[in-house]
Design brief:
Thiol Ester Dehydrase, Chain A; about 20% helix; 3 helices; about 160 residues; globular; single chain; alpha+beta
Length: about 160
């Protein structure tokens, strides 16, 4: 992974921080397909990008993966495209964890148009913990389990009222 989110390493997680994570991006020309809207594959890349940014803020990003010799890898994606995003749109990429067990974490995504708050995309990913050297499944370390806390069931992750 590039150092695209390197700035996040300097950011300190606050104790009262929500388990919902937002990343705001702007649609660029390279995101657009021949139909004039964001290509479907780009949304899956954005899922990876926002998940990576989120784990960096949780203190268990790529550097920690390498140090601990195990990592979380995507094993299953489900996506639903609801509305097209267009060139120069500002997009809110939102993600949260909703279930954790010894081997897997389950992450949800919702992408919104920042201007009109319309829902563009929803998706979820099943992530598996593996040993990097062998690629075999491994139980999550206490470090992962402590950092990867699922969303509070009382929270509504589709509520954008906290975003300016």
């Amino acid at each position: 992974m590039s150092n695209l989110y390197g700035w996040l390493k300097e950011w300190k997680r606050k104790e009262d921080m929500s388990s919902v994570f937002d990343l705001k991006i702007k649609v660029k020309p390279e995101h657009i397909d021949v139909l004039g809207h964001v290509n479907n594959v780009v949304y899956v890349q954005w899922m990876q990008d926002v998940a990576s940014a989120h784990i960096e803020t949780l203190g268990v990003g790529l550097d920690q993966y390498l140090e601990m010799k195990h990592a979380m890898v995507a094993v299953e994606h489900h996506v639903q495209y609801r509305k097209a995003a267009m060139l120069d749109d500002d997009i809110i990429l939102r993600t949260w964890l909703y279930e954790i067990n010894a081997l897997y974490s389950f992450r949800q995504y919702a992408f919104f148009n920042a201007k009109d708050r319309s829902l563009l995309f929803t998706g979820n990913t099943k992530w598996a913990c593996i040993e990097i050297a062998s690629g075999r499944p491994k139980r999550m370390s206490p470090t992962f389990i402590q950092a990867y806390q699922p969303i509070d069931p009382e929270m509504d992750p589709f509520d954008l009222s906290s975003i300016i």
